[in-house]
Amino acid sequence: MASVKSLLSSFLLLVGAAQALKFDLEATSSYHGNQRRCIRNFVNKDTLVVVTATLDGYKGDGMNVNMHISDSHGNEYGKAKDIAGEQRIVFTSHHDAAFDVCFENYLTGSKYVENPRRHVELDIDIGADAKDWSAIQATEKLKPLETDLRRIEELVGEVVGEMDYLRAREQKLRDTNESTNNRVKWFGMATTFLLIALWGWQIMYLRAYFRSKHLI
In terms of pTM, does the model score above 0.85? Predict the structure, then answer.
């Protein structure tokens, strides 16, 4: 039993750690234009997403950090301005699409900044990882092992759903490819028949021309 718990804990820790990202966000002057740092991820439709950004610094330190989340279909899921510390945005996706988490860091000019950058730690939890399993465990009175198995079950279900999506996408691309090949084949055959007909017409025309001139 202990080995099973250890294996489940290692699996869940590996899945959760795969979403963490740390980077430094340099500040620029506002007149230098819009300079964004974006992180892209893919999400299926109607999936819960929790984006947590933890930044060092504080409001009024001479830098202004904004965060913006949107997807490739133009849907906006959240905007946060002048953030510091922990900032969390929760949303449910509207489409099977990629979404971008973008950051901007501007110098406000209110004070001198010796090191104009903010350190960002970004966590993106999707689907089962975005749920509050402690609350679920308390509400449904589940044992820790049952909670871990429930979470793994949902994670596996998400993987299966993504595989089905990729399979359907592959089938759609295959159908499009076959349709294009058929169109190219018929276009090639029609072009060949047209060239043969044109060749025959040229022979008949030249023969009639030479006969009219009594050359043959």
Answer: no
